[in-house]
Amino acid sequence: MAMAMAMGAPREQLRVDARAPGKVILSGEHAVVHGTSAVAAALGLYTTATIRPGVDDGCVLDLPQLGVNLKWPLKVIEEIVTQGHLLDPKPAHVASYAESEWPQLGAFVEQQLGLHAVKGADAAVTAFLFLYTSILGLQPVTVRVTSELPVGAGLGSSAAYCVALSAGLLAYCGEIDLPQENGADRKTWIDVNEKKIDLVNRWAFEGERIIHGRPSGIDNTVSSFGYVVKFKQGQITRLHTQLPLRMLLTNTQVGRNTKALVAGVGERALRHPAAMGAIFKAIDEIAEEVVTILLTPSENSGGEKKKGEEIVSTEECGPHPVFKTEQEVRLQELVEMNQGLLQGIGVSHLSIESICQITASYRLQSKLTGAGGGGCVLTLLPHKLSSTSVELVKVDLEAKGFSCFEAVIGGNGVQVSCQTLS
Amino acid sequence: MAMAMAMGAPREQLRVDARAPGKVILSGEHAVVHGTSAVAAALGLYTTATIRPGVDDGCVLDLPQLGVNLKWPLKVIEEIVTQGHLLDPKPAHVASYAESEWPQLGAFVEQQLGLHAVKGADAAVTAFLFLYTSILGLQPVTVRVTSELPVGAGLGSSAAYCVALSAGLLAYCGEIDLPQENGADRKTWIDVNEKKIDLVNRWAFEGERIIHGRPSGIDNTVSSFGYVVKFKQGQITRLHTQLPLRMLLTNTQVGRNTKALVAGVGERALRHPAAMGAIFKAIDEIAEEVVTILLTPSENSGGEKKKGEEIVSTEECGPHPVFKTEQEVRLQELVEMNQGLLQGIGVSHLSIESICQITASYRLQSKLTGAGGGGCVLTLLPHKLSSTSVELVKVDLEAKGFSCFEAVIGGNGVQVSCQTLS
């Protein structure tokens, strides 16, 4: 039975879901710290926050992947946030939020966490308490957040967590339009209204500040708005491109120390200012060319063959040929160049190079994405590449102990869905 | 019995030896084609030409590594060179030499070569016939050329061949001073007099033109003058540095197509002018910094610890620590950066990366040298690195099927020696 939702009213008999994508950096990592452009895109793997009415005047937070399952009476939460002088259940609070006020909750949250909590769970719980009390006030709710994104792999899992939570809470309190229910079993996801995305994004950024201290704002912007975002000298520009790119994402399973990697690049830039400056400039040019390619109406959108979609390269990929369009050839070259430059500035890793070599044997170029030193590797997949070929590459990568999955890059941002509870 | 040699007179009772070093490109390969700087240095592996009086009015050419052992009556040689209109047994001939005149000897030379001749032997024989007849005229001689340099590995073996031959022939006809014999078994090598090196170099360049068509002149200049040479936009600058660098040179054993590699880089530069331009600029900056480091009076000259020779880095290299001076740390970073950039422009190879990864596991940075796509890889060895550590690295590399040898880079150029025949 279809039912239109009223705006602005609490939806106590509703289950609200909000999902937010991860992000990948297509190009410009590290150099961006030195003032050049970076390009990030939404990664079609989602973190989903489910908000439903609570029971017994309590608030339940269930984060299965972080080993967190907490239940607080609302009175306890009121005490916590009063101690923190933070209770202000209005979105307008965003403007007055002060970064320094939340860390004092650390001890409380740590004490709440059980044995099964994963490292970093305290920050996730603190961010939840902030977003929940600020947006919903003290309503009894049960919140569960699950994710397809690996944590700490540079894929923006914390931003997706904050965006999904913010959108879910805002939709639950009636600030965001929800889709009409179609009565079918299948969920209907709708994009968050453009005007409201900005609100989601601002809340999510506050959550990110609790988790990261001084986030760049790229991750939550990409997760909120989706598609592709360019970032340069603190300026975030959304690119009006909806070309999804097909990628293979491989997790090296090697943990990394982002701060140390960034510091290492900085020290090298001090020792070799001219050469490193030229390398940053080269990375900048690559990022700009990636933007140009992504903004060019093209054959990259997949699907039916269009006018101008010329196959310019046919290469062997194992037993199967790889058909590449001119744009794919250009993007692949840029990927190879970017990876070489990242190796040159010292942020690659044996595991990353090993993945690049395996995919190169299939004529597919790869680059690290994010901080490097481990983390994830992106491989551009031509749209015409058969799934059999992709399977072969995956088998090879998995045989070396890497985990990989195909994903669409540059798709939608945050979306919401709902279900009336009987 | 010591004996001073007279200048300018044929030395019929003498055996003359001339040896010329190979070369390595320290930095700037490929980018140099696009107008930036390259730095090349003498490689302490030699090609030696031995000239002794001939027998039976004939000329013998023995190139054991190329499978060449030819003997011609002088009358036949006269016919050949008369057909080629080339007989002009004076060094002044260099100025009037025309590149186009020698290829017509190809058919004759090919017909002379036996079954055992290695590919490229025809060019070596043609270059010999040119240098021999131009410098010595028609004297009966027996010439043997042997080399420590692998052929076709980008180590300047053809230039060393031409330089050794030119110097040997010029010394044999009295144009170059020879050392006094000391009567001992051990050969006394002396550097060719500075003024005469230029003559050797010009002749060698003509030989290189026969072998390569349009050589850059870097290889013969480095082999003739030794030490380090900077090359930019056709301008060759000798660097007055005599700092030998300690290197491990590893042959990937993978053959490569230099022309195709250079063309590939050129095409990529056309497709991505801004990004590739910035990469070439980065390579240029690296080459300039290498020059600056090499010209700075420093601790890199090995031997005794000097004032200012501070060990700034102590890293593990297998079971042994690696002590690196500040200059060595800087040079190693430049090597890593340069290799990344070369990978980025698409001229690396799986075998090259494999070598880089093996040496990196010992905290030693490597880069391809020359055209890439196979060929040789340079690894900078800190002067304080123990020979035991070097052995460990070599064992690892050789276990993967690579051949490697330690060599001094940036040492002397062409040298001569002689022996009175009884």
Describe what this molecule looks like in 3D:
- Two copies of one chain form a homodimer.
- Chain A has two domains: 14-236 and 411-420, 2-Layer Sandwich (Ribosomal Protein S5, domain 2); 243-409, Alpha-Beta Plaits (2-Layer Sandwich).
- The first copy, chain A, is 37% helix and 25% strand.
- Chain A contains eleven helices and 15 strands.
- The first copy, chain A, has helices at residues 74-83, 106-112, 121-135, 157-172, 194-212, 218-225, 258-271, 273-295, 326-344, 350-360, 387-399, and strands spanning 14-27, 37-53, 58-63, 68-73, 141-147, 190-191, 228-232, 235-239, 245-251, 311-317, 320-325, 366-369, 376-380, 403-409, 415-420.
- In chain A, strands 1, 2, 3, 4, 5, 6, 7, 8 and 15 form a nine-stranded mixed beta sheet that branches. In chain A, strands 12-13-9-14 form a four-stranded antiparallel beta sheet.
- In chain A, helix 8 (273-295) runs antiparallel to helix 9.
- The relative contact order of chain A is 0.19.
- The A-B interface holds A 268, 271-272, 274-279, 281-282, 284-286, 288-289, 330, 333-334, 336-346, 348, 350, 353, 357, 360-361 and B 268, 271-272, 274-279, 281-282, 284-286, 288-289, 330, 333-334, 336-346, 348, 350, 353, 357, 360-361.
